[in-house]
Amino acid sequence: MSDNMLQIWVNGRLVAAEEAAILPIDHGITVGDGVFETAEVRDGVVFARTRHHDRMDRSLAGIGLAPLDRARLDEGIDAVLEASLAAHGEHPPLQRLRYTVTGGRGPLGSGRFEAEPTYIVALQPDPGMDGPATVAVGPWRRNLHSTITGLKTTSYAENAVMLLAGSRLGASETLFATSEGDLCEGTGSNTFVVTDGVLRTPGLDRGPLAGVTRGLVLEWAREAGMDVREEQVPMADLAAADEIFITSSIRGVQPVTRLVEITESPVTAAPGLAEPEAPSAQHGVSFDRELEVGPLTQRLAALFRENAAATPDP
């Protein structure tokens, strides 16, 4: 995608993609000290803006940074939307909005200076993720006791490694377990399984991010009278579920029609740590399987599209 399709705003001004607009010693760059949100924009309207802002505030509090300046952030969001409209003459049907807040200027180590935070907003057209997904099951585990578990921080190297491993098998997402062995989430999505008509997803006490789409799916499914449970989900249930789907701001409700298993690590690291046993060896079942797009997944996908179109900021 060409740079003229990308609109960027940093600390009060629009900048070109190739412009050096962030300090090399910004703490978000040197140590990943920051938080971010990704939101869907349809026809120039940010979906669930308030929920995304609320979650960013929780993430900022979780890593000890100042509360979100919503007026400042909204200034940046409005600026990139207006720049996109001016550049293209009309809003693209689907865009990805990414906004980030970092600790600002900092030392080269992990300590912090008393500094103004850095606000970054970026917007670009997105092709979307229509159709079913192939999803990999990885051998790595999410630490339930980490200081940033459940927070949407910019420290995403772990996710990048796992997603890379899945992509080598043709998967667009990689799922992984908690440090205690039950299902956690994907690198950028939440996971739902359907068994005997019951909709289940890991509870937030099991370490997944409180996804905006996840929360709305749960609310709207309950309003529709579905049997919904947030609970501990054994990894082995992926091998036996009638239906599986994943959710995120860009994916919406996306059915999973194929699971593949990652058996080799893409990195070299301490033996037995970054290169654990294959998932099937850890959990006693094979995760290589194909699935149909089931009736509950179809119903929820349609319900989500309908409600999202009717209520842009639910």
From TrEMBL:
**According to its record, what are the GO cellular component terms?**
cytosol
Instruction: Tell me the Gene3D superfamilies matching this sequence.
Output: 3.30.470.10, D-amino Acid Aminotransferase, subunit A, domain 2
The cross-references to InterPro entries, in alphabetical order and at most eight, read: Aminotrans_IV, Aminotransferase-like, BCAT-like_C, BCAT-like_N, Class-IV_PLP-Dep_Aminotrnsfr
Domain of life, source organism: Bacteria
State the similarity comment.
Belongs to the class-IV pyridoxal-phosphate-dependent aminotransferase family.
Q: Which GO terms describe its molecular function?
A: transaminase activity
Organism in which the protein naturally occurs: Kytococcus aerolatus
What UniProt keywords apply to this chain's record, in alphabetical order? Aminotransferase, Transferase
Protein name listed in UniProt: Branched-chain amino acid aminotransferase
* Keyword Transferase found: yes
Pfam families, A to Z: Aminotran_4 (PF01063)
One Gene Ontology term from the biological process aspect of the record: carboxylic acid biosynthetic process
Tell me which SUPFAM superfamilies the record gives: D-aminoacid aminotransferase-like PLP-dependent enzymes
